[in-house]
């Protein structure tokens, strides 16, 4: 329930805040994001009541909505276009890496010196990043951020809808991969390790796909669709209900089904060279909505119809999302640029 606060705030504010990069400047937005996360994490650490914790997560969702588009614009301004792929791949690898570190923080920090200390440490790390953010004046490839071209607005929102379906599927692994594994006979430890292995493989795919995109010109949105299709094969294997098939499917779905974000961000930078932040904000709306809906849809299906049906629905969501992203790739800007 508390995570819903974060997702709702991020979903509602991503597009409006993404349009304001041109007014506020990339550095100011990025530093404001880091400061906002410091405040949100500090509130979590000091929270005396779940209501305060919910408010902190809402504030964190707003900071996330502010920072994602700004970070994309920052990368586009400070990296050569020939290095966009590796840049966005590394940037998007921060998410699974943070998830991994968050998991490690439970036994190493939360269970030893307390869960509040874990938030304090996270806030301190966020604080350290603020002076490290480069200035707009130092950007070797400065961009004048503006609004999304009118003709691209409709297909861009369609893309956001496609990403919603994709994220409904992709985020299911982190939320339910372990408990689903237990339902087919795996131990919690084994299922947890498989989720971690798949996450690490997805990190490699994010960086590797970005590096490849810098050397081989292809439509990165079409590549997003292709990776999701491969991930759908993994979710199909998980729906079989066999322990061996589940193990293979879990790793494949996690690695490929969550290996696409860097390529998606790359497509925004290449397709919208003067409105990267605004376009990223629209796309991020779909991502946030998918994160919000995924547990709300999958959990009731799993508890009423069983995990095979739940993974079948996840497979269908991935397939629908892949088709919509494929359509968007042919209707947003010039595919040769992405």
Report on this model:
This protein is mostly helical and 338 residues long. The chain folds into 2 domains: 129 residues; 188 residues, MFS general substrate transporter like domains (Growth Hormone, Chain: A, Up-down Bundle), CATH 1.20.1250. The protein is 80% helix and 0% strand. Helix 3 runs antiparallel to helix 6, helix 4 runs antiparallel to helix 5 and helix 9 runs parallel beside helix 12. It is globular. The mean pLDDT is 86.
Number of domains: 2
CATH topology (level 3) name of the largest domain: Growth Hormone, Chain: A
Written as H for each helix and E for each strand, in order along the chain, the element string is HHHHHHHHHHHHHH
For the sheet with most strands, the description reads:
none
Helical proportion? over 70%
Q: How many beta-strand elements? A: 0
In brief:
The chain is an all-alpha fold. 80% of the residues lie in helices and 0% in strands.
Keywords:
Growth Hormone, Chain: A, mainly alpha, 338 residues
SSE layout and pairing:
Elements: H1 2-18, H2 21-24, H3 26-46, H4 50-78, H5 84-110, H6 115-129, H7 150-170, H8 172-183, H9 188-215, H10 220-239, H11 243-257, H12 261-271, H13 276-304, H14 307-329
């Amino acid at each position: 329930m508390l995570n819903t606060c974060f997702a709702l705030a991020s979903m509602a504010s991503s597009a409006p805040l993404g349009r304001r990069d041109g007014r506020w400047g990339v550095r100011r937005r990025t530093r404001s994001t880091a400061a906002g996360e410091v405040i949100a994490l500090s509130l979590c650490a000091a929270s005396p009541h779940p209501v305060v914790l919910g408010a902190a997560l809402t504030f964190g969702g707003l900071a996330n909505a502010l920072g994602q588009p700004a970070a994309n614009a920052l990368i586009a301004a400070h990296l050569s276009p020939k290095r966009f792929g590796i840049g966005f791949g590394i940037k998007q690898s921060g998410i699974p890496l943070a998830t991994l570190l968050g998991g490690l923080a439970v036994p190493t920090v939360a269970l030893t010196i307390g869960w509040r200390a874990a938030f304090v440490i996270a806030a301190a790390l966020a604080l350290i990043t603020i002076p490290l953010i480069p200035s707009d004046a130092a950007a070797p490839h400065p961009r004048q951020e503006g609004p999304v071209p009118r003709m691209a607005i409709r297909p861009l929102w369609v893309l956001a809808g496609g990403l919603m379906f994709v994220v409904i599927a992709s985020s299911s692994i982190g939320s339910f991969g372990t408990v689903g594994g237990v339902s087919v006979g795996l131990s919690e430890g084994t299922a947890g390790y498989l989720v971690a292995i798949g996450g690490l493989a997805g990190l490699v795919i994010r960086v590797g796909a970005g590096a490849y995109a810098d050397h081989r010109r292809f439509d990165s949105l079409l590549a997003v669709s292709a990776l999701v299709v491969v991930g759908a094969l993994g979710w199909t294997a998980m729906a079989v209900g066999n322990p061996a098939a589940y193990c293979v499917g879990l790793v494949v779905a996690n690695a490929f089904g969550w290996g696409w974000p860097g390529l998606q961000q790359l497509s925004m930078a290449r397709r919208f060279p003067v409105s990267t932040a605004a376009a990223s904000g629209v796309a991020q709306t779909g991502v946030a909505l998918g994160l919000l809906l995924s547990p709300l849809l999958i959990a009731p299906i799993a508890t009423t119809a069983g995990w095979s049906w739940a993974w079948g629905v996840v497979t269908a969501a991935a397939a629908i999302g892949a088709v919509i992203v494929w359509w968007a790739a042919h209707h947003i800007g010039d595919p040769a640029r992405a």
